[in-house]
Amino acid sequence: MRSPTHNADSLYRYRDCLAAVDCLCAAIVHLDFFTQLDHSPGNLAAICRQFGIAPRPTDVMLSLFLANGFIFRDEQGLFHTTDQARELLVQGSAFDARPYYASLADRPGVTDFLKVLRTDKPANWPGAKGEADWHAAMRTESFAESFTAAMDCRGRVLAPALATAIDLRDVRMLLDVGGGSGVYAIACAEAHPHLQTIVLESVPVDAIARRTIQQANLSDRISVVAGDMFTTAWPTDCDAHLFSNVLHDWDESDCRRLLAASAKSLAPQGRLLIHDMLLNDEKTGPLWAAEYSVLLASVTQGRLYCAAEISEWLQGLGFSILQHTPTALGRSVLQASRSA
Fold this sequence. Notes:
Layout (H helix, E strand, L loop, with lengths): L8 H8 L3 H11 L2 H7 L4 H8 L3 H14 L2 E3 L5 E3 L1 H6 L9 H5 L5 H12 L14 H4 L3 H25 L7 E5 L5 H9 L4 E6 L3 H11 L6 E5 L13 E5 L7 H14 L5 E7 L9 H13 L7 H9 L3 E8 L4 E8 L2
Parallel strand pairs: 3-4, 3-6, 4-5, 6-7
Antiparallel strand pairs: 1-2, 7-9, 8-9
Helix pairs in contact: 2-8, 4-5, 5-14, 10-11
């Protein structure tokens, strides 16, 4: 497995950012968000009360607007409109751009994101009319095949960069939690010939992983355990656990559950590896991350997190982050171990 010769960022960014314009349009057309915020600045809780919207997608929306420079947060945690927003997005301005978005009010993605804001539940998967949300759809073979193929092609860009970014010379057994097609386990195994790996995946994705691993001629070094990562007992003989693009599919409480399960089963001197796209600690960007987080909030129960949030969860489990290393496509990997 090798990295691509050409830069793939723009191709993957277009897809990652599909829902961002729907979020902006929903805020402008259906909530008149910037006019209302200009009249009444507030913190996250106050904004949720004012507009009747849920904290998780609202947090995502605010990060998108912070990253675009439409709003700012003061030292007390109150969100305000910027001069740019007051000139272009607030009722009464001579340069009010809100009517330009009015014709998009009934666009399916816009109404979907408005529903997410109000219910905190994922919308239907984009492009599959009548489809269940992503979590439910992954239990069906046809959807699992198509979605895993999509993540596998992205993984072929990310996995070699991840394998290069982490030093696994002292790791005997790696557990790839929610490992999808096995693409990350394969890259790590190829980069470290001594390494044994276990992929923990649910049915029916486990069968896809076995097939991919067999095609890579690595079945002797990579095994697959079928099970729900929230309920299945994890192997206890692994000295590293990898979460690659996993936490962003789940809300905070479920992320904490997964990390607690990891801490419980990980070897005493083991390492946690969290590979994902991350927001900065102020949650004001990067813009790509803020845009991608909107898509995740639309179709999963999760969003993107920042290193500070993950660090807080890990500290409660007795772990601390030792290293934060960029990989590819705007992603990076956090390496953590038990605190001394």
